[in-house]
Amino acid sequence: MNHFLIAPVVLPALVAPFIIMVVRHHLDLTRIFSLASTVALVAISMVLAAQAATGEVQVYELGNWSAPFGIVLVLDQLSAMMVLLTSVLALVINLYVIGSGWDKRGANFHSLFQFQLMGILGAFLTGDAFNLFVFFEVLLIASYGLMIHSGGTRRFQAGVQYVVYNLLGSTLFLFALGTLYSVTGTLNMADLAVRVAEIPAEDTALLRVGAVMLLLVFAIKAAVIPLHFWLPASYANAPLPIAALFAIMTKVGAYAILRMYTLVFGPDLAVTQGLAGSWLMPAALVTLMLGAIGILGSYRIGRLVAFGAITSMGTLLTAVALFTPESVAAALYYTVHSTLAAAFLFLIADLISERQGIEITAQRKMPQSGLIAALFFVGAIAMAGMPPLSGFLGKLLVLDAARGHDLVWWIWATILIGSLVTILGMARAGSLLFWKAHAIVPQDDSEHSAAGEDGSDEQVQAPSDRAAALPFVACFALLAGLVLLTLFAGPATQYAEATAAQLFAPEIYIEAVLGKVTP
Known about the structure:
The protein is mainly alpha-helical. The chain has helices spanning about 5-25, 25-50, 75-100, 110-125, 130-145, 155-185, 190-200, 205-220, 230-235, 240-245, 250-265, 275-295, 300-320, 325-355, 370-385, 390-400, 410-435, 465-485, 490-505, 505-515; strands at about 60, 70-75, 445-450, 455-460.
């Protein structure tokens, strides 16, 4: 077995308790171990991505127990792509929080950060539906700790709402798993695919119930209308660098939909045919439009970017809901773009809020306003999907994939109008923050009072040049990712097409895990 396959789960699982038990009182050592772990994750993920690019599906049997009786981790092109994307994003955010000092505003930041990575990476690699639930819970607990990092009433209230809503989703997830197990007697994904296909049509009522409940669970994780209410307040009130990491968390929901509804409840399965697409398509289109309207009406920088994340999820899930190889390839390319773009804008939003507060209003000119304005402008273009960045190419791929669909004109109109509304909302915010900034000299040149993120008054300080350097490095790293995704759109699209083809050939996955294919 390839022991590298389990490393993305084991490494953060070991580093997190080590930080808590050994070095938590030494900030510099904590940063060193956390950063070293994240760099190692990137290196491991690159090796795994190179191995998966050959098209081979690799399986790791925990305890050397073969599936379906033992727990397995599975590496294919989709999971390899998501693991690499998560690792790179984690490294950039780790650099940002160290440079900005966010990690010393509360206790145990880096240990929670590592547990968060363990949960996300485990969810992408697991080949067992129950262990998908387990990793969901790991990332939920860690994300709650990160969300309330540095404290504050408003942040605590948003965290409680986030936990309650996601615990309801977790409860529904357990009901769905129990239903599926009662029907099939297994929760291994490959084995589920085999057994679901063997169930007679007259005995599939409970199977359809389980499939619907699973879809609702994943829709909660992906923040699909009308199950999106937790996201704007949660992401906007969390520390904005943490919200940048959360940009990958909604993709866990989209990943789970792709995995379960191409492998277990595939498009060729008669009993659940069209189940996901028929409900998901209108919900995704409404999500897209309401997210764009939210951008237009936002007067806090965190909420502005949070609604941008909702809009991008609407576009992504529109492509997923088409459930064709072409649309899934477009969705995968757009997944990488939207994750980088949302994280980039969250970091820019933090740079702004650290200098002049969270309100989108005309205030005094902030330190480094020209550079931050330029970065915000580029982020707005990326989020809206305007040329020349990768968001434009991603939306073109989605529009092209929808040409043969019955709702093609609705899809085209919603995506194009949503892009227009998004760029108008971003332009309004940018003009207030940068172009209409008043030349007001504060009483103290080093700091001025602004409404804090927790609802109290706090001092917003202009960071020194030395302290500000690393956060800008992190921002430019994400910008470089967007540029590279644009310049190498051809190879990236080819990889996405190969991944989509692998998803729509589930027998490859099943044979790798079980050693047999669907009869």
